[in-house]
Design a protein that fits this description.
Strand content: 5-15%
Oligomer: single chain
CATH architecture: 3-Layer(aba) Sandwich
Keywords: Amino-acid biosynthesis, Aromatic amino acid biosynthesis, ATP-binding, Cytoplasm, Kinase, Magnesium, Metal-binding, Nucleotide-binding, Transferase
Family: Belongs to the shikimate kinase family.
Number of helices: 8
Structural class: alpha/beta
Shape: globular
Number of strands: 5
CATH superfamily: P-loop containing nucleotide triphosphate hydrolases
Radius of gyration: 15 Å
GO biological process, one term: amino acid biosynthetic process
Helix content: 40-55%
CATH class: Alpha Beta
Strand order of the largest sheet: 2-3-1-4-5
Order of helices and strands: EHEHHHEHEHHEH
Cofactor: Mg(2+)
InterPro entries: P-loop_NTPase, Shikimate/glucono_kinase, Shikimate_kinase/TSH1, Shikimate_kinase_CS
Length: 178
C-alpha cells in the first residue's frame, strides 16, 4: 500500500486544505501526519513543543510519516518540517510528492504568524518564516515529483494544477479518480 500523493510544503502553503480537496477529486481518503502526531502524543503540537521540545516532536513526526507512507492509500499531508529528516526524505523516494510552494508575503498572510505554529512564535516571526523557507526550499524540491506555487490561487485552482501536473508526470490516470 502506498499513498496516491504525498503533499509537502511550508506553513501556509495549503497542505491540509489542498490535500483534502485533492483526495476528494481523486476519490481517495485523506490523512494528515500532524493529526497523527497529536493523536499519538495525546496533546496539541504546541504543547509537544513547549513541554517536550522540538526534538521529541520531530521523532514523533518521523514515525508518523513512516506509518502513513506504509499504511495509507490516499493523499497524505506531511507537516512543514517533515522534510528536515533525512530518513523521511529517503522514505519519500519513489512516492508521488506534491510540493505546494508559497512565497514569503503570502505565507505570512495565511499563517497570521499564529501561536498555533510554534516555530513562527517569537520576536521576529516574519524573519523566522523567511529562514524556514530558505532552509527547507531545497529539501522540498529534493523530494518533489511536482511543484505548484499556491500564491494568488484559489484551492480549486491549485487542485486543478496539481492534477494536471500529476497527469503530465504520468503519476495519475482517470482510473485513480474513480
Amino acid at each position: 500500500m502506498s499513498p496516491v500523493a504525498v503533499v509537502v510544503g511550508p506553513p501556509g502553503a495549503g497542505k491540509t486544505t489542498i490535500g483534502r480537496a485533492l483526495a476528494a477529486a481523486l476519490g481517495v481518503p485523506f490523512r494528515d501526519v500532524d493529526a497523527d502526531v497529536v493523536t499519538a502524543a495525546g496533546k496539541p503540537i504546541t504543547d509537544i513543543f513547549t513541554e517536550d521540545g522540538e526534538e521529541a516532536f520531530r521523532a514523533l513526526e518521523e514515525r508518523a510519516v513512516a506509518a502513513g507512507l506504509a499504511e495509507h492509500a490516499g493523499v497524505l499531508a506531511l507537516g512543514g518540517g517533515s522534510v528536515l529528516s533525512a530518513a523521511t526524505r529517503a522514505l519519500l523516494a519513489g512516492h508521488t510528492v506534491v510540493f505546494l510552494n508559497v512565497g514569503l508575503a503570502e505565507g505570512v498572510r495565511r499563517t497570521g504568524l499564529s501561536a498555533a505554529r510554534p516555530l513562527l512564535v517569537g520576536i521576529n516571526p516574519r524573519a523566522r518564516f523567511r529562514e524556514l523557507l530558505e532552509q527547507r526550499l531545497p529539501l522540498y524540491r529534493e523530494v518533489a515529483t511536482v511543484e505548484v506555487t499556491t500564491d494568488d490561487l484559489a484551492p480549486e485552482e491549485v487542485v486543478a494544477r496539481v492534477l494536471a501536473d500529476l497527469d503530465r508526470a504520468g503519476t495519475t490516470n482517470e482510473e485513480d479518480r474513480r
